[in-house]
Amino acid sequence: MQAGIVQRYTDSARIQRFSLTQRAAVGLFECDNCHHVIPIEQDAELKAALDIVKSHLSGQGMTDREITLSSHGICPDCNRSLQK
Asked: Record's superkingdom (predicted)?
């Protein structure tokens, strides 16, 4: 049974981690510098992009159960620190 309370993700060191589910979040962004994890919040453009992915999968004969968005880069705090 899934209650949707926590979300599992694999960090850049290939370690399984868990975070509380953000209902409006569609995925997670992990900073490659400080490893802070930031929820990627749902908006109309992102929903449209995910709908395209679902349509593509359906066209290939696949049924998606869950689409998870994962992104890596540099967070705003680290960007500010690096620019100083």
From this structure: Bacteria
